[in-house]
DNA sequence: ATCGGTGCAAAGGGTTTGCAGGGTA
DNA sequence: TACCCTGCAAACCCTTTGCACCGAT
C-alpha cells in the first residue's frame, strides 16, 4: 500500500502544474525549490511507482525517459530541439488502420513532432529554465 | 578527410545488410563475427562520424540510439517490444499541415508504431522474460 | 511499532573521451 | 611519413539498487 509523503506530493504536483511530459531531472529541479533535500533517486523510485499504479505513463522521446499523467485523452507530443522540453499536442489524428504491413501486430503508436517551441522562438534563448 | 579501414567497411556493411535502424550494440555484435577485436568505442565513433558526413541518420526510438542509412525516402518505424528490434515502414502517411498549434515551428516528425514483429510472433522467441 | 519511503552512495547500462600504438593515404 | 583510426580503459550521464534511518499509518 502506498503512503502519502511530502516528497510524493511534491513530485505529483510537478506533473499537474506543468501538464507536459517531464524527465526525472526536470521533476528534481522543480521540487528542489520546496524540498532541496529530495534526492534524484527518490524521484526515480516515485515516478516508477506512479507508473505502476497507473497514475503516470512513460513517454519515450528525446533520449531521456519522460512521464506524464495518464488521465489524459490519447494525444501526441512536440519536442523542442532548443530547450529539450516536451509538450502535449491535441488529440491523435493518425488513422489506425494499416499502420504496419502484414505480419506485424500493432499495439500502439506515437507521433513526435520536432521543432522549436513558442518560448524559444520568441526569446531565442536556448537551454534555459523559464 | 576520412580513411577507409576494414573496421569502417564492416560497420557500413551492417547497415546495408540489415536495412533497418541499428543500435551500436547491434552493430558491434554483427561485426564481432568477422572482426572480434573491433571495440564498441570504435562503433560509436564511426557511427557518429557517418552521421556527420550524412551517410547515417539517428533514429531515436526505444530508449537506445539507433542509426540508419540516410539514402532512403521519408519513412517511419516499427519497434518490436519483444526483441527490441526496429524496422522501417513504408513511406510517410502523416499529413504535414497542422502538426502543431500556432507558435510552434515544425522541423520534422517521426511516427513510431509499437508491437510485435513477424519473427517474434511466429516463433514466440524474442526477449523472453515476461 | 510496523513497514514503506527517503537519502546517500555505489553499482549498472549506454555513450564518450584520453592516450598510445597501428594502418591508410 | 603524417595523421586519422583503433583498442583499451577510464570517465560520464542516466537510472537503479543496497543500506540504514525516517516517518506515515
Q: Would you write up a description of this structure?
A:
Two copies of one chain form a homodimer. By secondary structure, chain A is of the alpha+beta class. In chain A, 33% of the residues lie in helices and 28% in strands. A three-stranded antiparallel beta sheet of chain A has the order 1-3-2. In chain A, a hairpin with a 4-residue loop joins strand 2 (56-60) and strand 3. In chain A, helix 1 (6-18) crosses helix 2. The longest helix of chain A is centred in the first third of the chain and has 13 residues, at 6-18. The radius of gyration of chain A is 16 Å and the shape is globular. Mean pLDDT of chain A is 90; it is low at 126-130. The A-B interface holds A 60-63, 65, 78, 81, 87, 89-90, 93-95, 99-101, 103-118, 121 and B 60-63, 65, 78, 81, 87, 89-90, 93-95, 99-101, 103-118, 121. Strand 6 of chain A pairs antiparallel with strand 6 (105-116) of chain B, so a sheet runs across the interface. The structure holds a DNA duplex (25 and 25 nucleotides).
